[in-house]
Amino acid sequence: MEYVIKNMVCRHCVAAVEAALQKAGIHDAKVFIGRVELDSEPAQEQLECLDAELAKGGFERASTRDEMLIEKTKSAVLEHVRSEAECRLKLSACIEKQVGLPFDYLSRLFSRTEGRTLEQFHIAQKVERVKELIAYGQYTLSEIADITGYSSAPHMSRQFKTVTGMTPTQYIEKLPDRESLEKI
């Protein structure tokens, strides 16, 4: 049995959904970004408790076919952004492979439902990944551009500035000092 969970975008979301499942008394679950796999059907009371716990964290179970397709599409985009091997593929091919439906159909559904294009969502997620890699402090901007599938650091920087209003260098300058964070 599988439930598609809306609004999951990272490993912290996975942990929050795992905690919600525990509070609902559902212990036979495997949690992934965007979905939960269960070995057996939970009792109605457990599902009601789960829905309440999910809502506290800003999540909910997808109930319609379109909601499920949108969440699966978002998960495919996240996989595309976070996997170096996947980000080398065309986004459309990655989404079609993971969702099993034509990209054009999913793109139209996404735009109609989400109020932004699939490409805008993809770019926003890439920029979030860039921010994450910058915060690690382990890579140069050229390395980050390569890891995230940009053709060059200048291209990444232009897109970063379009989305955030600042360059990656300006973003780095605004990050808290690592040494002061270690003292806390």
Structural features, described:
It is a single chain. The protein is built from 10 helices and 4 strands; from the N terminus they run βαββαβαααααααα. With 184 residues, the protein is of the alpha+beta class. The protein has 3 domains: 2-61, Alpha-Beta Plaits, CATH 3.30.70; 65-115; 124-183, Homeodomain-like (Arc Repressor Mutant, subunit A), CATH 1.10.10. Strands 2-3-1-4 form a 4-stranded antiparallel β-sheet, with helices on both faces. α3 crosses α4. The longest helix has 19 residues, at 118-136. Mean pLDDT is 90; it is low at 179-184.
Brief synopsis:
The chain is of the alpha+beta class.
The fold-level CATH name of the largest domain is: Alpha-Beta Plaits
CATH architecture of the largest domain: 2-Layer Sandwich
Report the end-to-end length measured between terminal Cα atoms.
44 Å
The sequence of SSEs as H and E is EHEEHEHHHHHHHH
Helical percent range?
A: 55-70%
Largest sheet: 4 strands, antiparallel
Number-wise, the strands total 4
What percent of residues are in strands?
5-15%
Overall outline: globular
Chain-averaged pLDDT: 90
Low-confidence residue ranges? 179-184
The radius of gyration computed from the alpha-carbon positions, rounded to a whole number of angstroms, is: 18 Å
CATH class of the largest domain: Alpha Beta
Q: How many helical elements?
A: 10
- The order of strands across the largest sheet is 2-3-1-4
The chain-level structural class is alpha+beta
Number of domains: 3
